[in-house]
Amino acid sequence: MNAASPTPQARRLWSSSVLVLLGALSSGIAIAYGPCVVDDADREVCLDAPAERIVSLSPGATELIFATGGGERIVGAVSYSDYPPEAEEIPRIGSYKRLDMEALLGREPDLVVGWSSGNPTEQLERLQDLGLTVYLSEPRDLEDVATTVERLGRLTGSASTADRVAAEYRDELAAIEEQYGNADPVRVFYQVWPDPLMTVNDDHLISQAAALCGGDNVFGELGSLTPRIDKESVLDRNPEAIVAGGMGEADETWLDAWRDFDSLEAVTQGNLFFVPPSSIQRPTPRLVEGTRTLCEQLERARERR
Length: 305
Hints:
The protein is an alpha/beta fold and 305 residues long. It is 38% helix and 14% strand. The protein has 2 domains: 36-165, 3-Layer(aba) Sandwich (Rossmann fold); 183-303, Rossmann fold. The radius of gyration is 24 Å and the shape is globular.
């Protein structure tokens, strides 16, 4: 049996497509066939092909790229990019606060993953002026972590792995919410830094994680994302639990300064808690791990009432 001849309408559509393509080629217009996504600065980021040489400008971005399955394509990263362990072997291109531009450019990246609020603005702009493709990452809520993984997965050509990781992350968060959604509130103070003393407001990812556990951030209403406060304001708000991250994954010394304040309910109840900082201070899928740790700690605070 002979195949059916194309209809006149189909022939016209095919002819129009060919003419558009030929016209674009003859006029020098580039036709992109690579991945395109929109980053957290609402900019379209397109590549001619999935990235093969990636430079990461924050420890969180490094971890996010590994989460997508694209870690082996990272050819440069900033200091403190330490997770997973393989990340420590990546050549360094400065710190997130001050990039070594010569080292960065020497890695010849086809994709740079930057941190909008952490990297120096003038250096990010310089990279773009030099013609490098820069994806600006700034996850602002728990869902943004999943969408960032998905976007980076497309840019690295590992969408199937990235989509699976994002789905598992969302499922874990949903399970935490179901487990603790009706728990009695616990007034909590999270210490980001001791000197100057800093905390987070309710817009911060850490506070959102605490809210999933039934935590009520005593400084949640403050205007800044990471506001500076003083010890007197902590004493005045008298949190039921104090949580700190510390300088290392097992360094709980930041909590010691609070043990002398017997007027604090968190001290009298023994609710001084430590969460390994990289598990809750980086916007990566490991937020699930840090959130579960925090939830278990706040549950202990409830049991001590």
